[in-house]
Amino acid sequence: MLHIKSFTFNLFEENTYLIHDDLGTAALIDPGCHTAVENRELEDYVASKSLKIVNLLNTHCHIDHVLGNAWAKKRFGIPLWIHPKEVPVLKSVEVYAPNYGFQGFESSEADHFLEEGQEFVVGEEKLKVLFVPGHAPGHVVFYHKSSGQCIAGDTLFRGSIGRTDLPGGNHDQLLEKIKSQLFTLPPETIIFPGHGPETNIGFEKVYNPFVGEKAVY
């Protein structure tokens, strides 16, 4: 069984996810932790569940999703996985981080690269890597078929979609990819977004004002 624990970190109120199997093998997704208090919250949870984090994943590499990358790599001794198209996105964070008030931001580099359609193994569980660019050029999501759960980053939100006015964004592409990659998943699939509350595919296919059946184009 795949277990998903969410944390809300940093001034952007970003959702960080810790996923693990029944035996405690875990992966950390989009660590937005930035302060000592946030780091400790994550550490305490890991300790309380006796988890062993073995991998670090980024759905994409905007600042709010990578603030804890360098810390997590060192603290848990784990490699970072991103899509190749996110390399320049990750690199750019160290340039603009001070503009957002994140002084002393420590950059990180990818150790491995994710591929579209790849099955990523977390202990006894497998997640499929879906390629959903538009918010960011190399944005991926992680879909766990057997439990009907999807870590979706900043692609699809409850009643909204990821912004596309940032460098590398493409509005039409994001709409198309949501329809072809996410809306083809079963309607009961739970979406764990990069910000805000959970939602599900069935609800968004009907009521999402950007891509739902009732959307006004």
What does this protein structure show overall?
The protein has 217 residues and is α/β, with parallel strands linked by helices. It has a single domain, classed as Ribonuclease Z/Hydroxyacylglutathione hydrolase-like (Metallo-beta-lactamase, Chain A, 4-Layer Sandwich). Helix content is 25%, strand content 28%. The strands form three sheets. The chain has a six-stranded mixed β-sheet, with helices on one face. A six-stranded mixed β-sheet has the order 7-8-9-10-13-14. The longest helix is centred in the first third of the chain and has 13 residues.
Structural class given helices, strands, pairing? alpha/beta
Q: State the CATH class.
A: Alpha Beta
CATH architecture assignment name: 4-Layer Sandwich
Rg, alpha carbons: 16 Å
Q: Termini separation (Å)?
A: 40 Å
Arithmetic mean of pLDDT: 97
Q: Give the name of the CATH superfamily.
A: Ribonuclease Z/Hydroxyacylglutathione hydrolase-like
User: What's the total number of strands?
Assistant: 14
| Portion in beta strands | 25-35%
Which shape, going by the Cα principal axes?
A: globular
CATH names the topology as: Metallo-beta-lactamase, Chain A
Low-confidence residue ranges:
none
What is the helix content? 10-25%
Q: How many structural domains are formed by the residues?
A: 1
Number of helices: 6
- The side-by-side strand order for the widest beta sheet comes to 1-2-3-4-5-6
Summarize the main sheet: 6 strands, mixed
Order of helices and strands: EEEHEHHEHEEEEEEEHEEH
